[in-house]
Design goal:
The complex is a heterotrimer of chains A (about 100), B (about 500) and C (about 475). With about 100 residues, chain A is mainly α. Chain A contains three helices and two strands, in the order H-H-H-E-E. Chain A has a two-stranded antiparallel ribbon. In chain A, a hairpin with a 2-residue loop joins strand 1 and strand 2. In chain B, helix 9 packs across helix 11 and helix 9 packs across helix 12. Chain B has a single domain, classed as Amidase signature (AS) domain (Amidase signature (AS) enzymes, Alpha-Beta Complex), CATH 3.90.1300. Chain B is globular. Chain B is about 35% helix and about 15% strand. Chain C has about 475 residues and is an alpha+beta fold. Chain C has three domains: about 280 residues, no CATH class; about 110 residues, no CATH class; about 60 residues, Arc Repressor Mutant, subunit A (Orthogonal Bundle), CATH 1.10.10.410. Chain C contains 15 helices and 15 strands. In chain C, the strands form four sheets. Chain C has an eight-stranded mixed β-sheet. A three-stranded antiparallel β-sheet of chain C has the order 4-3-14, with no helix packed on it. The termini of chain C are far apart. In chain C, about 40% of the residues are buried. The chains are: A mainly alpha (about 100), B alpha+beta (about 500), C alpha+beta (about 475). At the A-C interface, helix 3 and strand 2 of A face helix 1, strand 7, strand 8, strand 14 and strand 15 of C.
Chain lengths: ~100, ~500, ~475
């Protein structure tokens, strides 16, 4: 069985940088149970693990990669037109501490 | 003057100077405002729009609508989300750019379920979108505003996008045509993504011919979208001849057979009955239609597989919505608090819930059971369909369990009752990238219902032609909601 | 030295050289002007999609081949999902399921002995934006967002800081030789993550692994490893090995120590999944064959050749292969017919010293192999002395004039006829000395040479003078 709990829902939401109300949290648990029931059944499909996962809508294709040529940069006024906080040509945020 | 015409008819009128492009545009704008008051179909109405030069191109001078999840340069593009409520892009989606070459005139940006996630038209940041046939009912989603405005006769067509059934279901609920071509026929560049491996561009029209014309103009390989492909040799409009003798179709027993629904409502019984009657019309034209059986485990899995895949891809696709580079800045002491504030305030409850589920499905320890198994079942379903497509030209199915539901009392929640399979089977078309078209096939309780035909990849012309033949046998082509009689039309 | 055995693994990130970025067609170059190399994808504007740079795939496959890796059947990418202000999409496009290379190995030289380094994988990914920090704010410049990166991951196969750094140095050279990257650490083009554990010599089980992230120079890699070995050894020595935690640390340049960032429980789940916007691309065998042809002779093979074929010392060979451009200069000289040992000597003693002093690269060096040949050739013929050669070398560099301009002025008297006449005349005038010479006073030979030199004001070709004198005195 799954370990999908109220606490985990909050933890997941927090990592996705979204806040949830108590009602939303409960709703998610209910909704998830619906999905989980079928996903549980899927694990019982014979030799399911040997099926190649389908990651793209169309079968592997032989697309042509882009030639290595550069295009002119987008104008800075366009880049920052929708930005609520910038300084000079850069996007401004509160000081980022710590790091990855 | 009433301009409820097909594109071909409008072109004739424009050519014969019975109307000018400018008059068409003015009329369209007037209707847009009327339907906005009634149905709340638009995020933006482009009041400054004016007519364009009419030439031999059937599309020239014709007004149309754009779903608000297409990026349009210099025009507000919100995806019906508060996270982008003031976002004005500096580039235009390839599909729209392709249409611009045809002298088409955009009239407005239509409202949708936020970023295309949802099937009811109740999650847009501008409020519920209503069905013009009955304002108490939903228009269906996510291309709600596009469906409502086309059904109300604002213009002959509007753009839609389809990740699960977002073009084809609202089309059925609004009594119009909804077509999503094979994955990659139309570039997705500039379409705000929901679930990239399932997202399709397409259109909503009032006739199959118009759908063919519009997609002919939207499609084309795009260097900005690696999943797009060269369709120069496909001419949809030109290949419609209505000849369908000898074509073969099938429907899926486990979804369509009434025996699957012991508690079926009268509405559902009527809907399925109407479906079988529609099949008879095709049989009269020499089409063979058979019932086929598919492993019930696969059929029952469709909906959950869809949720696992679409929610997972969506959480990743929408991670760029932080309010840092675009979108309203959130409040907070540090950047993470700011982003969290932006996202908590910006997203509707539905999206947030889906994100959490998608994120759970992707977690390292769960991925195999949920996300990867969903990808595996996706393949099993698609393989099964492709196997059947070797014997058949296409799959023909009823859309939904009947007409559009009431908005009141509707909850956009994941539930599983015994009609789920009938509600959600169009997702098969997204799993395989299959071409798929819905056309109206009658009325139940005076509300429109639809029928869908889905075929194998790249075989769009064949599928459209079968739909075209069927459309010709029924009186629903170019129908509009009666609401227009109340409007500023005569 | 610690009595424990250290086990070290490396992750080496190297910015690739190309015209455009890996998934967008923005320019890939360093730009002082912030946000001036931007296409819509680089700032993750809604609706943008990645495209794949062919040249970046080609170069990654080339490196995969160089490292003797296995190539996948298809090239495709994964999303690595996490929130950080330098990552506008909220995910990095990288390769997790099918790196361009897996399971490779390469032999390097460490202080005269050979070492086989095992490569876990090498994969292609995109770089992040850069943050500039101020007292209360940070500014984001997205120029670097989307710059192609190759990440090379070794097995934990090094046992000392010296081995690890030797590998990094060697890889830096390979990137340069293969024209995959400028691999300039000063420009931040190479960044490393290091993992270190210690174990008892006789143990078979690895100790607790500590990762040190984002070390930006090779000397810091060395310091970080040495510090970590010391720190872990001291704890083990004191019976407190359980305090060594599986964790992520960073290297603090000022204190020369490593500082804890986060523990194992805080490890980020990156929720990798296959990037659906980039289809799978089949790698045709014929394409790999073509790429193979583009692999240049690698520095280690060059070194062997210099030693075995050209007779250089290992010391000299090592210096020349250190920089690709030195090796290319050297090899061009050889192809122009100059003798390897003389060239090597000139390159190491004169040229490199000069370049270092002037702060120049060999590409900017005035005396191209063709010009150098004017000096070396005359020196070889014995037309000029090595002292004269050096003088011409310096003058040519100073005045930026071709060496032959000076050769004419200092040209030796090498005309055999003229020399013979002079020598005949001198011998005529020194009959008595000839007599004494023939009677056994052989040291008078130098006297005759001196006379010739005096007569020719030192310009006579000494070898020829010698030859003629011997002939005439017999």
């Amino acid at each position: 069985m799954h370990n999908f709990t109220k606490e985990l829902v909050d933890e997941l939401a927090d990592k996705l940088l979204i806040g949830l109300t108590r009602e939303e949290n409960e709703l998610i648990l209910n909704e998830f149970n619906v999905i989980d029931e079928t996903m549980e059944l899927i694990t019982k499909i014979p030799s399911i693990s040997s099926v190649e996962p389908m990651t793209h809508a169309l079968p592997s294709s032989t697309y042509t990669p882009r030639e290595d040529a550069k295009e002119e940069s987008v104008d800075i006024s366009d880049l920052l037109a929708n930005c609520d906080a910038y300084e000079g040509r850069e996007v401004k945020v509160p000081k980022v501490v710590g790091g990855d | 003057m009433n301009y409820i015409k097909t594109i071909e008819e409008l072109h004739e009128m424009l050519k014969n100077k019975e109307v000018t492009s400018d008059e068409l545009v003015k009329d369209s704008l007037k209707k847009a405002h009327f339907i906005q008051d009634k149905c709340n179909a638009f995020v933006t109405i482009l009041d400054d729009a004016t007519g364009k030069e009419v030439n031999d191109d059937l599309l020239s001078g014709i007004p149309y609508g754009i779903k608000d999840n297409y990026s349009t340069k210099g025009i507000l593009s919100t995806g019906s989300s508060n996270t982008l409520k003031d976002y004005v892009p500096f580039f235009t989606a390839t599909a729209v750019k392709n249409l611009e070459r045809h002298n088409l005139v955009p009239i407005g940006k239509t409202a949708l379920d936020e970023f295309g996630m949802g099937g009811s038209g109740t999650t847009a940041h501008t409020g519920n979108i209503l069905n013009p046939w009955d304002l108490k009912r939903m228009a269906g989603g996510s291309s709600s505003g596009s469906a409502a405005s086309v059904a109300a006769g604002v213009y002959p067509f509007a753009l839609g996008s389809d990740t699960g059934d977002s073009i084809r279901k609202p089309a059925a609920f609004c009594g119009i045509v909804g077509y999503k071509p094979t994955y990659g026929m139309i570039s997705r560049y500039g379409l705000f993504p929901f679930a990239s491996s399932l997202d399709h561009c397409g259109c909503l029209t009032r006739s199959v011919k118009d759908a063919a014309l519009v997609v002919d103009a939207m499609k084309g390989q795009d260097e900005n979208d690696l999943t797009s492909w060269d369709s120069q040799n496909i001419h949809l409009f030109a290949s419609l001849d209505g000849k369908v003798k000898g074509k073969k179709l099938f429907y899926i027993k486990e979804i369509v057979n009434l025996e699957n629904y012991p508690d079926a409502s009268n509405e559902l019984k009527e809907h399925l009955d109407n479906f079988y009657k529609t099949l008879d019309l095709l049989k009269e034209e020499g089409v063979t239609i058979k019932e086929e059986s598919i492993d019930r485990t696969l059929v029952n899995a469709i909906f959950s597989v869809y949720q696992c895949l679409s929610c997972a891809e969506a959480t990743s696709n929408m991670s760029n919505l932080t309010g840092i580079i675009f979108g309203p800045r959130g409040e907070g002491k540090n950047i993470y608090e700011m982003i969290k504030d932006h996202r908590t305030k910006g997203f509707s409850s539905l999206i947030k819930r889906r994100f959490v589920i998608g994120s759970y499905a992707l977690q390292k320890e769960n991925q195999e059971k949920y996300f990867v198994n969903a990808q595996r079942v996706r393949r099993l379903i698609v393989d099964k369909m492709n196997e059947l497509f070797q014997k058949y030209d296409g799959l023909i199915m009823p859309v939904s369990t009947g007409p559009a539901p009431y908005i009141d009392g509707h909850k956009e929640e994941i539930t599983n009752d015994n009609t789920t399979n009938l509600e959600e089977h169009l997702q098969i078309g997204n799993f395989g990238g299959f071409p798929s078209i819905t056309i109206p096939n009658g009325f139940i309780n005076n509300l429109p219902v639809g029928i869908n035909i889905t075929g194998k990849c790249f075989d769009d012309a064949n599928i459209l032609n079968i739909a075209y033949a069927l459309e010709s046998k029924m009186p629903y082509k170019n129908q509009v909601a009666p609401i227009i009689k109340e409007g500023p039309y005569e | 030295m610690s009595k424990y055995k250290a086990v070290i693994g490396l992750e080496m990130h190297c910015e690739m050289k190309s015209q455009s970025k890996v998934f967008s067609n923005a320019e890939n170059s360093y730009n002082d002007n912030p946000n001036a190399n931007i296409r819509p994808l680089d700032m993750a504007f809604p609706g943008t999609l990645p495209t794949v740079n062919l040249e970046c795939i080609r170069k990654s496959l080339l490196m995969s081949l160089v490292l003797n890796c296995k190539q996948p059947e298809y090239i495709y990418f994964d999303r690595k999902n996490y929130y950080y202000p330098d990552l506008p999409k909220g995910y990095q496009i990288t390769q997790m399921h099918a790196p361009v290379g897996t399971n490779g190995k390469i032999i390097i030289d460490v202080e005269g002995h050979e070492k086989e380094v095992l490569i876990h994988d090498i994969h292609l990914e995109e770089d992040s934006a850069s943050l500039d920090h101020y007292s209360t704010i940070s500014l984001i410049d997205y120029n670097r967002s989307g710059v192609p990166l190759l990440e090379l991951v070794t097995e934990p196969c090094f046992n000392s800081a010296q081995e690890a750094v030797a590998f990094l140095e060697y890889m830096r050279r390979i990137y340069q030789y293969c024209d995959v990257s400028e691999a300039d650490t000063k420009k931040g083009q190479i960044r490393c993550d290091v993992n270190v554990s210690i174990m008892d010599e006789k143990d078979t089980q690895l100790g607790t692994k500590v990762e040190i992230k984002n070390v930006n120079s090779f000397s810091n890699v060395e310091k970080a490893i040495l510090y970590e070995i010391k720190r872990q050894s001291e704890l083990k020595e004191a019976g407190k090995y359980d305090e060594v935690e599986q964790e992520t640390r960073r290297f603090d340049e000022e204190s020369g120590t490593t500082i804890r960032m986060r523990g194992k429980v805080d490890a980020i789940d990156y929720k990798y999944f296959v990037e659906p916007n980039i289809p799978k691309l089949k790698i045709e065998a014929s394409w790999l064959e073509e790429i193979k042809k583009d692999i240049p002779i690698l520095p280690r093979e060059r070194k062997q050749k210099y030693i075995n074929e050209f007779g250089l010392s290992e010391y000299d060979a090592n210096i020349i292969i250190k920089e690709k451009d030195y090796a290319l200069y050297f090899e061009e000289c050889i192809s122009l017919g100059m003798p390897p040992k003389t060239v090597a000597n000139y390159l190491i003693v004169q040229i490199i010293a000069y370049l270092n002093k002037e702060g120049l690269t060999i590409k900017e060096f005035y005396l191209t192999p063709k010009l150098l040949k004017q000096i070396i050739e005359e020196l070889e013929k014995g037309n000029i002395s090595s002292k004269q050669a050096k003088e011409i070398f310096n003058k040519a560099l100073l005045e930026k004039k071709e060496p032959k301009t000076y050769l004419e002025k200092t040209a030796q008297l090498s005309d055999e006829k003229v020399l013979e006449d002079i020598i005949t005349q001198i011998l005529e005038n020194n009959k008595k000395q000839i007599e004494e010479y023939k009677n056994g006073k052989t040291n008078l030979f130098q006297y005759f040479v001196g006379q010739v030199m005096k007569e020719t004001k030192g310009k006579a070709n000494p070898n020829m003078v010698r030859d003629i004198l011997i002939k005439k005195l017999v």
